[in-house]
Amino acid sequence: MAGRPPPPGAIATGTDRAVLGGPVVPAPSAVHDARVSGGVGMVLSATLLIQLSTALATTTFDVFGTFGTGALRIATAAAILLAVVRPRLRGRTARDWTAIGLMGTALTAMSLGLYSAIERIPLGSAMAIMFAGPLSVAVLASRRRLDLLWVVLAAIGIVLVTHAVPSGSVAGVGFALAAAGAWAVYLRCSANVGGRFDGFDGLALAIGFGAVVTAPVALGAAFSPGARPTDFAVVGLLAVVGFALPFALEFAALRRVGVRVVGVLLSLDPAVAALVGLVVLGQRLDAWQVVGVGLVTAASYGAVRGARGTAPRPGPPS
After folding, report:
1. Nearby residues of 212 by Cβ (< 8 Å), 6 or more positions away
2. Within 58-200, where are the H helices?
3. Listed residue (178, 137, 134, 128) closest to 155, CA to CA
4. pLDDT tens, 196-249?
5. Range 3-23 burial, b when 16+ CB lie within 10 A, else e
6. Residues 82, 75 contacting (CB under 8 angstroms)
7. b/e for 215-231, b at 16 or more Cβ within 10 A?
8. Over pLDDT 70: what percentage of the chain?
9. Model pLDDT for residues 242-297, shown as the tens digit of each residue
10. Structural domain boundaries of the chain?
11. Cβ atoms within 10 A of the Cβ of 168, count?
12. Could you say which of 82, 93, 249, 268 has the lowest number of CB atoms within 10 Å?
């Protein structure tokens, strides 16, 4: 009956809210839809920010070099995270520090590998190859016969993506494959670190480890002749826009929509990378390469959908 007060504890909706004169409380379905929409928007924003920052990083390669740019970005990100998170150092076991070392090494290799790859091959091609890493983790987590299809699709896609790569860019494919392996290792390590450390403590310490390992490279790059304040500003932007902000968005999205949905949406990474490469860097892929990127994206989607609640949660790949 319209105008009848709802029972205690019920959510007032429709005409009840008007009659009661109370605050407008969204219906449960509306709240759920808003959370899902917000989570989806967060993941897509994180994906776009990561690819845009990766494209932006190419503008400093001539000044700092690929390893120099990557090392400076890691050092800046570590300084920001350690200052904000302030992870606890005391009371850690040898196994804790070993886990941090492995994760930090994987993150560092992933970042430097990607930068070295995109210096030689298009961004879309590099990301398609790199996705072999999280794809393999998703397939191993699922263990269904159908997942063999995703492996085959991804393999065909990678072949198509790399078929037009000049012989002089074979090293770029190699760096992308190395970054893919590092990404897979990172995903495995992140589960271990996540169980040992609270909040962002593990991530901050892992990045800090990476900064220590690459400190000699970062110091050398910092004193590069011809480096301008704007170049260092770009590196700082890479650390924030290409790392801290996307990771925070993904973390918040996980709480809204869950790991499965986040994993499926992140399957769009190769396609977004190809689009950013075209629009921002003017990197055109031929028809077969576009098909290859599409196959890798489809394979990633299928593998993540098949993983029983264990879809890989990529960290900052760029």
Report:
1. none
2. 61-64, 66-85, 94-118, 123-130, 132-142, 147-162, 170-196
3. 128
4. 888 788 888 999 999 999 999 999 999 999 889 999 999 999 988 888 788 778
5. eeeeeeeeebeeebeeeeeee
6. no
7. eebbeebeeeeebeeeb
8. 79
9. 887 887 787 778 777 776 677 677 777 888 888 888 888 888 888 888 888 888 88
10. 45-54+62-306
11. 8
12. 93
Distance CA 84, CA 86 (A): 6
Q: Chain-wide mean pLDDT for the chain? A: 80
Instruction: Give CA separation, 11 vs 15, 16, 24, 135, in Å.
Output: 12, 9, 10, 43
Task: Yes or no: say if 240 and 53 are a contact pair by the CB < 8 Å rule.
Answer: no
Closest to 317 in 3D by CA, of 45, 34, 70, 2: 70
Interacting residues of 52 by C-beta distance below 8 A, sequence separation 6+: 241, 242, 276, 280
Per-residue pLDDT of 123-137, as tens digits, reads 888 888 888 887 777
Residue with tokens 């901050």: 204
Residues 6+ apart with CB under 8 A from 63: 224, 226, 227, 228, 231
CA distances from 202 to 89, 133, 214, 253 (A): 10, 21, 18, 19
Structure tokens at 155: 């393999």
